[in-house]
Amino acid sequence: MKMFNLFLLNRSNIFIVILGIVFFSLTTYKASHSSFTHDESFTYLSYVKKSIIGIITLEEPVSANNHILNSLSMKVVDKILNPTPFNLRLPNLIGHLFFITFSALISLNFRNNFLRISSFILLNANLYLLDIFSLARGYGLSLGFLMAHWYFFGRVFFQKTPDLSFRLSLIFLLLSFFSNFSILYYVVSFFLIISLFLIKIKSSIINWEFVRRNSYVLISVIIVVIVIIIGPIAKLIKHNQLYFGGNRNIFDDTINSLVFYSLDPINLSNNLVHLINTLTLISIIILTYWFFRKLYLNKILNLFFFSTGCMLFIAIIQIALFYLIDTRYLIQRTAIFLIPLYMLSVLYFIDDINILLVHKFTAMISLITGLIVIIYLPKHNSLNWKYDAENELLISNLEKYYYQSNKSEKLKLGIDWIFQPSLNFYRATTKTGLWLDTLKREGFEDGNYEFYFVESSNMSKFVDTNQFKIFKKFPVTGNLLIKNENFDK
Fold first, then answer.
1. SS3 148
2. How confident is the model over 101-127, as pLDDT tens digits?
């Protein structure tokens, strides 16, 4: 009945519902008012037009950019709606609804009203998470399904016959995995922590009949994951597509990158960012100590043990793979699922120590965090793909110039390669293709163009100020539209 308890009219529930509407409104506005980015466009142009089997089997071009469930959902949207940026982002907005709903339901399980509100805010009020939910990428879908997985797994601890909840948790885990293969780290860690739990738990306090019934389901899920992952991973390795990641250490790569993008829009000083990084590391050390204390005392029948255990196993697996087979560390968006996992671990720890003063302090911090996120969330650009923020504005400017100039041939535009997928998306889905010539990924130095659209760092390549004039400088990105005055001569 927890699903319906969310709508009971008490102050904490009303506050959570209002905040959920605010967070969802932010991502919806952002999804409808920001340019389609590099990776979103690459997915649409490369995979959406392929067959379902082609998407699932990673037909060429082979790329880790093909998040299977996201590509399939974009294909469905493309069939039934106009392929606008907002429409193609609808599946991830649905993923955000899942995330908000199930994080709210998880919050209701905390004993203290302060912690209920705090947990909902801290699980949702993250600039990087909200940014990801507003994009047509598999990460948002994956996070929504992961939160649903965790909610149903948590219900196992509160029900006398939890078979359905456990199986639903595994179904949502599979959906999360199909949305983003980076979740494989979590999948493996989840099975490992369950194994450790079964080894350590006292026989007298566990329902072994439940374990026996559901062990077959668990084994089936493991087999499905192995069967599904072998082919795509082999292709990605063969085509050298697992290059995105860090090669230093788990702190500098994984933790620092998540902290950086979670704080980036606020423009904090380097010293303050470093302080937050250090505090995050200290909190992880405290969580690790508490985990092993629980393990030593055999007090492991709780969600803190599972959330923290998963997080620690993910760290161990990453470090082991890095040194054994030179696999890169998860960074930025590939590691984003660690943000809610870490936050769950912190919240379960606070609930476990059960100190009212700590609950009140957490509530104060969460309210400040929520307010900061609402104020500073970028409404018109993505944190990972800022350079694409003004591509729609570029097209509008060029279209106006083209028709005012009464040209008979398509306009030729030379570009930095990073702009090619996004601009070609607009050529393919709007009337832009009627007046703008095909855009090449090779860059802008392979031919003679009437205009050049480049990052400001490339201005030095246009040294002849008589031939090349800045037609427009875009205020948000600093990108330059440069006109070749000698093009028609």
1. helix
2. 999 999 988 888 889 999 999 999 999
Please name the residues in contact with 103: beta carbons below 8 A apart, sequence gap of 6 or more: 119, 120, 123, 124, 147, 340
> In angstroms, rounded to a whole number, what is the distance separating the alpha carbons of residues 36 and 392?
8
Residue 262 neighbours by CB distance under 10 Å: 20
**Cα 207 from Cα 240, distance rounded (Å):** 46
Q: What is the mean pLDDT of residues 452-465?
A: 85
Amino acid (one-letter) located at 132: I
What's the DSSP call for residue 45?
Answer: I
| pLDDT (tens digit per residue) in 159-186 | 777 888 899 999 999 999 999 989 999 9
Q: Name every residue whose Cβ is closer than 8 Å to that of residue 438 and which is 6 or more positions away in sequence.
A: 424, 427
H-type helices in 301-387, by residue range?
303-325, 338-353, 356-376
Q: How many CA atoms lie within 13 A of 241 on its CB side?
A: 17
Q: Enter the tokens of residue 449.
A: 């163009």
Indicate the residue type of 171: I
| Backbone dihedral angles phi then psi of residue 382, each to the nearest 5 degrees | -95, 145
d(CA 337, CA 319): 18
Nearest CA to 147 out of 348, 301, 342, 341 is that of: 341
Pairing of strands 451-454, 468-473: unpaired
